[in-house]
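> example.struct
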C-alpha cells in the first residue's frame, strides 16, 4: 500500500468509523454493498470481516439489524435504552470499520490506528449524540427525540456515502464532527458540575 492509498484508506476508515458513532449498523451495511459491487475509491481486500460484510448472509444480517436500529430510535425512551447498548457497540464498530479499510497495511498501523482513531472517532460522536438526546428528552419529555433520530440517521448516511465516494472530504467532516461532539460533551460536563456546585 503506497502513501496515497494509505491516506485514502485511512480517510475512508475514519469516515466510516465516525458514521458508526451515529448508527452502528448503517455504515457496515452500505460499506458491505460497496465492497460487493466494487464501488470503493481504492481496492480493499475482501478478507476477514470485509468478506463477511460483503457476503449474502452478512448483508442480510446487517440489513435487518439496520432496520431494527433505525425504527427503535423512533420510540421514546427506547431510544435512550438503545444509546446504552449502542455506546460500546459504536466503539467496536468504529474499530472494525477502520481495521477493514487498513487490512492491506502493516498490522501495527492497522490495529493501532483502528483502536485509537477509529474507536476514538466513533466513541466521541456517539457520546455527543447521547448528550444531545439527553437534552432533547429533558426539554421535550422525549417528544423531540424522533427529530433528533432523523437528523442522526441522515448524518450517518451522508457521512458513510461521503467516506465511500470522497474519502478526503469525509476526513475533514470527521474532524469537524469530532470537534462538535467534544464541545457538546464538555458543555454537558460543565452543566452537570455547575448543578452539583449549586446543590452544595
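> example.seq
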Amino acid at each position: 500500500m503506497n502513501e496515497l492509498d494509505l491516506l485514502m484508506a485511512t480517510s475512508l476508515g475514519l469516515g466510516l468509523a465516525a458514521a458508526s458513532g451515529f448508527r452502528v449498523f448503517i455504515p457496515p451495511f452500505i460499506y458491505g454493498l460497496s465492497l460487493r459491487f466494487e464501488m470503493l475509491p481504492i481496492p480493499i481486500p475482501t478478507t476477514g470481516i470485509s468478506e463477511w460484510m460483503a457476503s449474502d448472509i452478512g448483508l442480510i444480517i446487517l440489513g435487518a439489524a439496520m432496520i431494527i436500529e433505525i425504527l427503535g430510535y423512533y420510540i421514546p425512551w427506547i431510544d435512550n435504552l438503545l444509546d446504552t447498548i449502542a455506546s460500546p457497540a459504536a466503539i467496536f464498530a468504529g474499530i472494525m470499520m477502520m481495521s477493514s479499510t487498513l487490512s492491506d497495511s502493516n498490522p501495527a498501523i492497522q490495529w493501532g490506528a483502528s483502536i485509537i482513531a477509529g474507536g476514538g472517532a466513533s466513541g466521541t460522536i456517539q457520546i455527543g449524540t447521547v448528550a444531545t438526546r439527553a437534552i432533547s428528552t429533558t426539554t421535550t419529555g422525549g417528544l423531540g427525540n424522533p427529530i433528533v433520530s432523523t437528523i442522526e440517521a441522515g448524518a450517518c448516511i451522508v457521512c458513510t456515502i461521503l467516506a465511500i465516494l470522497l474519502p478526503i472530504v469525509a476526513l475533514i467532516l470527521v474532524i469537524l464532527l469530532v470537534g462538535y461532539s467534544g464541545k457538546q460533551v464538555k458543555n454537558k460536563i460543565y452543566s452537570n458540575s455547575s448543578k452539583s456546585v449549586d446543590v452544595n
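> remarks
The chain has a mean pLDDT of 88.
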